[in-house]
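hey can u run this one w/ magnesium ion bound, need the structure tokens asap thx
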Amino acid sequence: MSSVNELTAAVSEILIDEDTLQGRIAELGAEIGDDYRGRDLLLVGVLKGAVFFMADLMRRIDIPCEVDFMAISSYGAGIDSSGVVRILKDLDMSIEGRNVLVVEDIIDSGLTLSYLLRNLEAREPASLEICALLTKPARREIDIHCRYTGFEIPNRFVIGYGLDFAERYRNLPFVGVLRDELAAQAEELA
Ligand code: IMP
Ligand code: MG
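ok here u go:
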């Protein structure tokens, strides 16, 4: 089996192909550029999943902006978020008085982001909004206001374009559904 097949064999179905992803990201970038024109903008990416989205999104924003990253980790290696979050890497810069846009790969239960928002809010930014590439509304356990959303997806475990299963498959250029056999393993890890 070639290595390309080994990678794509984990996918049962392509949910969002490359062209569709890039088209929507261009729209989001244009909207963000318009909304923040004339204001200072700091994009805050959540490592590692958001790196791919951030890189493409930022190049579609036509105003000067800065980027910083945070790494957070929920306990456990499974697919269910516990909402218990550790900061593994904090921001390099202060966000006090700045317009902060948090860039996330996916909002699932919303627990991770809800913790992160409370943490960032305490640092007194001028504004704090969210841009998420994907959202699974059916899984939401906590209400989160997401200013910019790329795609609403059904309750399936997805991989690719930054999203991982046990740290793998982030390098798939599309968003695909993880095959059932592998998803079952993920349930056991949770
Ligand atoms: P939440 O706290 O339940 O909203 O979980 C958010 C985090 O869980 C995301 O940043 C992802 O790292 C991970 N996650 C949730 N759903 C998926 C998925 O379908 N595929 C890959 N990672 C996911
Ligand atoms: Mg993850």
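The longest strand covers residues 66-74. anyway lmk if its weird
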